Fold these 2 entries.
Entry 1:
Amino acid sequence: MSAFPEVTKIRYEGPDSDNPLAFRWYNPDEVVAGKTMKDHLRFTVVYWHTMRGTGSDPFGSATMLRPWDDGTDSVENACNRARVAFEFFEKLDAPFYAFHDRDVAPEGKTLAESNKNLDAVAKVLREEQQRSGVKLLWGTANMFSNPRFMHGAATTCNVEVFAYAAAQVKKAMEVTHELGGENYVFWGGREGYQCLYNTDMKRELDHLGRFFHMAVDYAKQIGFKGQFLIEPKPKEPTKHQYDSDAAACLNFLRTYGLTDYFKLNIETNHATLAGHEMMHELEYAGMQGALGSIDANTGDLLLGWDTDQFATNYYLTTQIMLVLLKYGLAPGGVNFDAKVRRESFEPIDLFYAHIGSMDAFAKGLRVAAKMIEDGALSKHVSKRYSSWDTDLGKKIEAGHTNFSELEKFIMEKGEAASNQSGRQELLENVFNRYLD
């Protein structure tokens, strides 16, 4: 029996369509900038918000109507939920999905029982993948919800909790590998601290580096060739997360010799919490060859926490696609780490939310590709930095000069050449014209 009987497969109908269950901008097979939209965007539905979100918040209980859930935390219910999930993926025409281990299968009283539960649900996931053609983009382990992780997982002060976390990741990596996952993500949910009075920061970071090296070693052992990803986030739930932004993550990876094995999964709402724009975080990771994937959401600038809303702002999605077209995205994807609002509680709202955001990213892709083709921004950037294309600029960039030579140059010239205007307002106007 269908969980979404009123929905057929979502199709592209074009910009003039007023059908809320159709795409206006996302045409999967349309070629833009040399690739199909489907290949550019690699849309991924996330299991935790879409299938497990309840609508609860610190001020109220669950609101979501999910008629396919029987209210139990049984393996049977989890297997049924997985089949419903794939009906949703197929009807949405999403090529990928992603999950945490504890999203798809209930946690048991022991690790052995938890692993058995995960294996049972993974069997259904494998069957559904083979039937539908939907692929697993990435898996990960939830090492933040259970009270045992109150002090962290890989950065815990309790060595036996560290061992438990290692065993849990081992199993999650095995299942991800068995299901053909293209990536494995580490989100350090509680890898940070609340108070330095009781924290040995260096020891915790050393332990985190050791944990990641063990993961790399085990991936080689089982033949997992997927990309490891770290997801930056500055706060929540700890006051200071060790993976606070792209710069902190890359500094950590260099310090512990892990840059050959890890890239970053960048999220808009996390960038905002870190005091950055999403475009900044993407560019910072991309220019260093570390951009692996993105979480496609947005925050509410009037609220100071991680609201994980669906991104529908064309301005934002165009900015994101300008960077993604420059650096590429595969083997990562555009992951809808976003949840419907507490008030949007009916199953059909899941479709409206995903369709709107898929269209927003497709519109952003179209606009960004046109801007790049026209050189709308790049020609201004080239002109702004044109002095660096002179003989002097080339010598500096090549490392063929020094302070003394540069002092001599300025002494003889008397004063530096006049600056050029940055034309920021003009370029913002240009950007807006492309969104018309």
Note: The chain has a mean pLDDT of 97.
Entry 2:
Amino acid sequence: MTLRKIRITLATVMFLGLTWLFLDFTGTAHAFLSWMAKVQLLEAVLALNVVVVAALVLLTLVFGRIYCSVICPLGIMQDLFGWLGKRVKKNRYTYSKALTPLRWAVCAVFVVALVLGAGSLAQLLAPYSAFGRIATNLLQPVYVAGNNVLASIAEHYDSYAFYHSDVWMRSAISLGIAAVTLAVLAVLAWRNGRTWCNTVCPVGTVLSIFAKFSWLKVRFDAAKCKNCSLCTKNCKASCIDFKTHTVDATRCVVCGDCIERCKFGALKYGRGNLNNHGNHSNQNSPDDPSRRSFLLSSALLTTAALAQQKDKIMDGGLAEIADKVAPERQTPLSPPGSLSQKNLQTHCTGCQLCISECPNQVLRPSDDLMHLMQPVMSYERGYCRPECTRCSEVCPAGAIKPIAVEVKASTQIGHAVWIRKNCIPLTDGVSCGNCARHCPQGAIEMVPSDPDDESSPYVPAVNEARCIGCGACENLCPARPFSAIYVEGHEVHKEV
């Protein structure tokens, strides 16, 4: 099997797996494929996953920048758009010098943004995060809509193989950013291949340092080269200069296209300088393609193993219930396991995997400039069930750390606040008590609105010391459009 075929096979598996990880709303995919998110370089760095970071660096020092063409989903997406472009016009690329000052300037801005906590800027440049936003905001709604069609068909035949799920817009701003990112990537990749990867992407820039010293590289055999320029015209990274017989290893992503297109065998993927007289090593040498293929596949599998260590709601079918409106919270709510607003802001890359995986529709991208595209909680469509820990299980960057069910049930992320003017026992003169009945912590008690009159309407009293901020009260409050009770977030979480 050739290098190119191996690369395409592994990249296809990685791309489809990561895409399904973001599209799947049942939780099935993350049980098998969560390691794919954890082997992304930036996420592994932020999660302080030393083993994965070391494995990826070693992988690059041995094989070159195969991370960008096999593991990174945004890099694979660029290859897909580039392939479509080549279907329209073959031999479309040219050699260009590396824009080294620009690459390092962008990388410096990215690092400074991370250090200063300007996550919104850093997230725009992070490759895995950009792919995650595209998948969550643009692809998942289509996937869920298709699932709902199948669910309707299955329901007709009394089958429950599929079930309906709401299709809704979590954030117009996040949707717009995802659409613009996809359009820019598509145009750049269509026209010039790996422009984004080798000019903008900070991960690619950092890996280029190690790729320069990689053990295996794409190299020229000048004696065999006929200067036909096919290698240069098919290099998506624009890093092959056929005139000087050089390959810029810092930009080469080891896709194998150049080797496949060379008709004279002048390009080889191996170590050391090739013999210009054409006396190449025999099939049993360390440069044997089959052996390199085995090593490449084994390295990727090892890295994977290390990472693994709207229908309207009706009231009784008679009256339409108005949609809830999110309250103005003084402090945003961050998911249990995030520890604090600061920890979330520092580690989150805005990939939105937690948002796409949330089964209760509680998480959505923040529209606040300081936390843009990072997850924030709101309870209009559901509440954070104490037994659910999925967001903490899928986060690859350490922004939401794994949390046990029993710990989550005692972690206070906020506390409930009663709004007197919205409470229906006082506004409509009817008894309620929904918030107290559904509070899983028993933190709400119904008491007379007039302490001196036992017959006065009963209203909720919140025990803040017991409340964990799950939002069951806010979500299930019948008051519309604003709930009579809502959850105010805490900057730092604590156990109660």
Note: Residues 155 and 319 are 25 Å apart (CA to CA).
